[in-house]
Amino acid sequence: MxxxxxxxVPLPSVREHLADYENLFVVCDRHVSGLAETxxxxxxxxxxxxANEERKxxxxxxxxxxxxxxxxxxxxxxxLGIGGGVTTDLTGFTASIYKRGIRFGFLPTxxxxxxxxxxxxxxxxxxxxxxxxxxxxxxxxxxxxCPEVLExxxxxxxxxxxxxxxxxxxIDNTDGHYEKAVDLLGxxxxxxxxxxxxxSQTIPLRNLIAAAARIKAGVVQRDPDERGERRILNxxxxxxxxxxxxxxxxxxxxxxxxxxxxxxARLSEAEGxxxxxxxGQLTEDFQRCGLPVTCPCPVxxxxxxxxxxxKAEGSFIHFVLPIEIGHVEIRNLSPEAVxxxxx
Length: 343
Hints:
The protein is of the alpha/beta class and about 350 residues long. It has 14 helices and eleven strands.
């Protein structure tokens, strides 16, 4: 079984954990470069990038690789990615193919990256407008979870991570974390100052982030190559990726996932799998948390993008459908059947 190292540490402790890494190189999102500088890491080199979906390409990977080569990074180098999901994806993919693979780790600075993108070893880039079509599965040596970095996160970015947090607990709600998350996120969204509310809820938020990270890590450890169980982590994502492409990136990933989960629940009810009313409950819960729930276009307009989804095999796609809170199942359905069911 693979080992996934998740370190829940205060931000200043990151330097101590990396003190013995003599050949350390850092890739950092420009938006958090000031925060990264305060760590005073013993790095041999820094590469600051504009981390966005438009830059999540092979061209950026090659740019980082040329920088590593010119900076003298050898096969003993360690590459640390500091930033959100785009940064961790670029860092992990670059490290996985540079000189046939060097060690790497992540310091995710967004809620979405902390609960999803930085855990599990999926590292990739986009091909044209299609999400994560080029990539590998390779685990980071460690992922640092430092909740205090979320305190200055723009609220809309926080909401994107909230969607992935809820997704995780819809898959596994053993300890009632879904209800706890809806309650906490609902309180934050209802607050006059959501940023201040996030700061005041650091401990319960940290506990939920850690719980979600452990759930995902457990699934990945049991199915690292996504041959079976790991596919459940794609709940809402087939719809979400198609929505992102249709909106030309105007709808962020997390918001698209929230819409995708509601669509998956509607589909599950239409297929006679979920109990009647589940989609309505999720709609109310997500709205309470400040998340969008309405598809921005007719579902039929998502068909072509869904057919090109990574989860497509032949004429079918592996759709993850919620049966009940804490229970999902995988069904192989054609895009045409999905569109017909959701009319």
